[in-house]
Amino acid sequence: xxxxxxxxxxxxNGLWFGxxxxxxxxxxxxxxxxxxxxxxxxxxxxxxAVTTAxxxxxxxxxxxxxxxxxxxxRRALLGGVNLVRAAVLxxxxxxxxxxxxxxxxxxxxxxxxxxAETLVDTALTSTIPRVVAPAARxxxxxxxEATINIxxxxxxxxxxxxxxxxxLALAAGAGAALYALAVVGVLVMTLRPAPGxxxxxxxxxxxxxxxxxxxxxxxxxxxxxxxxTAVMNxxxxxxxxxxxxxxxxxxxxxxxxxxxxxxxxAMAVGGLIASMVxxxxxxxxxxxxLLIADAAGTVLLVAPVALDAPxxxxxxxxxxxxxxxxxxxxLVATIRQNLSPPDLLGRVYSASRxxxxxxxxxxxxxxxxxxxxxxxxxxxxxxxxxxxxxxATFVRYALRTDLSAAIEPxxxxxxxx
Length: 417
Hints:
Mean pLDDT: 79
Oligomer: single chain
Shape: globular
Low-confidence stretches: 196-206, 410-417
Order of helices and strands: HHHHHHHHHHHHHHHHHH
Strand content: under 5%
Largest sheet: none
Distance between the termini: 29 Å
CATH architecture of the largest domain: Up-down Bundle
Number of domains: 2
CATH superfamily of the largest domain: MFS general substrate transporter like domains
Number of strands: 0
């Protein structure tokens, strides 16, 4: 009898290594780009524009990213896009050292990095079924999620901060090197053959572009989970836009920037721990219970601020929310992989991101308007009301739907050839 799970294989390990290196680069780049804008004397609006430029790609380019991923060799795509990202950051580094860096150049780089993220993330999730067996998808998704939590959220920003304290160019240059290193993992992968794309699909033009969106909308479970994700992301947008204003002195919590950093780290730790234990939790409690728990965690993300709770309660809510979010992403990713045809998986994933992440920029902007017209706590009160409403409706849906069936290994119809 086998006690330990079977290894996931060399190809998955290559994908895993590439994911870790690229996400460490992501974490450093996200930290470094606003600092580069500050270093050249950009106004607060200019610095905010950098973040906006980084997040616009999903709603504007997401469907195209899925169409591209489903039509090209994914090894070549992952390798090529990571090299482009390395070149972009290396160019910014050179511009900073030479004294020729400008805000338009930083914004252009942010847009390119955002577009690259849509391609890499879509290729990553749609490649997992090509490198592991169907029964191992949940474990593979959990390992990838843990790696993203460690590199992108836990290690990337602090490492970039440490390097930036010596020289900002060093932080940006290290990010470029990590993107290049990610290509090494891609080179060792061998992908299982995928079903050929029918000629009528290959020549369908716009129909091929939105085929993933059509499949998502016709698949009841994937569609519903995507819509719930989008509404919950409105709540997360409020937290992402305004928590720093509420938490950091002179905000009501009165935290230092270092303490605020620890709060965000605690949220990432919650996500990391959850991603490491999601499979035994799923076997013990079931998919339905875990997804309901995540919806409850979204309430805890914003309710402590709405209730003017002390810092420890805000931090505790953030940890629970981070854990729940990690579990949600892992389980929903596995469900989407199992319920989507292999030749459409890239487009289905990108369509789900366009819907669920496309709400983040307008959600953050709306939160800012509410905070300007009333105050920050009012925005969190409204977010809490929305989160409670989502929880109530999701409990009813989840208890009527056999979500566990979608996690089981798919039938041969949806398996890679």
